[in-house]
Amino acid sequence: MDTFTRVKEELAARPKTWLVTGAAGFIGSNIVEALLSLGQRVIGLDNFLTGYPHNLDSVLASVEGANRFTFIEGDIRDIDTCRKACKDVDVVLHQAALGSVPRSINDPLTTHQINADGTLHMLLAAREAKVGRFVFASSSSVYGDHPDLPKVEDVVGTPLSPYAIAKRASEHYAQTFHRHYGLETVGLRYFNVFGRRQDPNGAYAAVIPKWISGMYHGEPCYINGDGKTSRDFCHVSNVVAANILAAVAPSEAAGHVFNIACGEQMTLEELFDAIKSGLKAFRPEVETVRPSYREFRSGDILHSLADTSKARKLLGYVPVTKAREGLVETVQWYVQDLMRKAAS
Fold this sequence. Notes:
This protein is an alpha/beta fold. The chain contains 12 helices and 13 strands. β5 (133-139), α7 and β6 form a beta-alpha-beta unit. 47% of the residues are buried. The mean pLDDT is 94.
């Protein structure tokens, strides 16, 4: 039996109380759904800045356990809200953040207030509430300009954006809280997460949902740079599994950060072709679609690839969904969602 299957069985037999910050967001809502399906008690915290009520509505409609879910509408920039949310909680899964490198360059202050100050507030509240484990979302952006591939956790470069700086600061704060206060913190450096419920709209939308929506509607799809830029795309199911594993891993995992990815590279041109291939069954006309190219985006790195051996060793993490497999599922989900919206 693999580690994740064993952990799920143990949690189902002995439920915990979990706080998921950013619960109405893309990643947070997928975590809430998984926890409720395992019979856990879940508290969700969100201010709906980038999350949506319909994400939680979708979760509660798809799994049993609405009576085990409590929602708090609030902001992690308010320390009293953080204290209220952490009361009587066993595990905190801290996903609340203001994402996007370009947004952080345009608005560094708000990015810092939410991603750095907000995380500090959550750490303080978790320490005061004597929470057993604090798992938090970091980012592959912390590797900055360091050229080596694959990325290993103890070798980072200079951050290239306010977003990366705030995430790195959060890692330092978490390690300090573990060292000085005994709070068991585990950081997860996500690599280009994608999947169901990721927002395709807005100026800072992630590339995969944006391209799926654009191709489906016959709108232009842009590649920033020459298309040879590569990423380690990671389906959201892997992130869900990593959070649950990190929550119950042995104490030797505390105080560490871990890469969460598939350990595979895909260029933007390969990604474009894979999405187009998945959409052809629903929109045959996408066969002729070609991307438009524009300048590289400020703050972006050229290549990304994760070494996940540390997460495998200390957390028992193994990707449950490979990138191309996840793209097939994601395209199908978005097409069904777009058709549903068109019919309503």
